[in-house]
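Why run this: before we spend reagent on co-expression, it is cheaper to look at a predicted model of the complex and decide which construct boundaries make sense. The entries below are exactly what would go into the expression plan.
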Amino acid sequence: MYIEIEPASAVPIYLQLAQQVIEGVASGKLSPGAPLPSVRAFAADLGMNMHTVNKAYHYLEEKKMIEIVPKKGVFIHPEGIREATKEERERLLQELRPILAEAICRKLSKEELAELTGKLIEEIKEGTK
Amino acid sequence: MYIEIEPASAVPIYLQLAQQVIEGVASGKLSPGAPLPSVRAFAADLGMNMHTVNKAYHYLEEKKMIEIVPKKGVFIHPEGIREATKEERERLLQELRPILAEAICRKLSKEELAELTGKLIEEIKEGTK
Amino acid sequence: MYIEIEPASAVPIYLQLAQQVIEGVASGKLSPGAPLPSVRAFAADLGMNMHTVNKAYHYLEEKKMIEIVPKKGVFIHPEGIREATKEERERLLQELRPILAEAICRKLSKEELAELTGKLIEEIKEGTK
Amino acid sequence: MYIEIEPASAVPIYLQLAQQVIEGVASGKLSPGAPLPSVRAFAADLGMNMHTVNKAYHYLEEKKMIEIVPKKGVFIHPEGIREATKEERERLLQELRPILAEAICRKLSKEELAELTGKLIEEIKEGTK
DNA sequence: GTGGTCTAGACCACA
DNA sequence: GTGGTCTAGACCACC
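The model came back. Tokens follow.
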């Protein structure tokens, strides 16, 4: 797992971290049950504060992507990531919406978009950064 | 143009407003050169602060999607929205990335995703909310 | 709303605070949509840290008992507290279980327990502390 | 006695163990004077650390629910579990309070609650897990 | 060693 | 003025 954080980004550090863990799962680099570093170790590793890592972990736990076992450690959810609920699909679509709207304004055709997202999906699955 | 704002959302109000203007353009409801309400009128209409509408407008101006003509008014960019630059395409992909990654974790296949985004694109183009 | 915190208690401060807000709702003192103090004001009021109040608020938000509107304030969930899902009922029962088990060991009969809980419920509903 | 531990629970393992012993007593499966496994044997049996079992035993001893006889073994308190003192009743009520408050918020009526707790009590007494 | 909790103080964007 | 984020450093219970 290589994690790259851009401190200057508008997206909060804890979110960047969480998203990269999610990418790790999507690419298969992180399998169900796999341990994640302790909050302290990860924080030291990434040069950030313990609480920031903690926040990322709790964010992921809420999404049921990881399991935080008090005093034991943190693990990719051992029962596997569950399929999206109707609510979650709806949320993902809502997040997608403004991005697609802007792309359409910018004259990207449906086909171009399909190709771009297709490539992006492959990239994520292969774990290419 | 029906604008719907969710005040409780984590997305800032000014951004929600800007995104809905963009959707208006994407759907063709707002054509190049079309006038937008004055800051004052829009704010009163939507029950929000003038500063908020102003911020949305300047956000859109920076993206070159609208033109603010002092003393005259605000218009959808009359020369049409220009195609995405390389940087903008890159940014759109970066925004897409975490959403797709989560979708993959949630076991959405490439085909399902393509179908969903396809539908969403149609929805936006038709201006269906 | 009178809030009383026991710093020496084994139950974390943020939880005590959250529970007392819940009691406020149960007693009807806090109605749907009612505003709660800002994190800073509440913290100053209660002599605790802003982050502790924040944690209590986010705990309650997760339970959908309050709504945190960024930059606006915090409110008792305006649509009212929704009924317990099957999962939540199950959790409540699991929490009840060890307490009842101990009570049974201590020779409290079913009738005594029913009477005690009945009284306690009335007490909570009336907002008697 | 079947003991089931959820390692991922927020409830400490030693407490889970102690609570299940209490349930054993409540259901009558463990009668006054009945022997409990040695710390070592229990730990091996449950795949947990000796310290953890030890802590559970001392927790139960403090509650006077078991008796630890050095070099002899551990037994359910032979003189029977004594009735709850006033303090203990008070403590049980205090533990009950937040659970009931949440249930009230969730629109569970007094009658529903009475029925649910009644069922739960029967379940515990019968030793149904 | 782990995560959980709490405090303190800071800066930021938003409204 | 609001909540959001981040840092820093501390103590605790549990394993």
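The first strand of chain D starts at residue 35 and ends at 36. Helices of chain D lie at 13-26, 39-46, 50-62, 86-105, 110-126. Bring this page to Monday's planning discussion.
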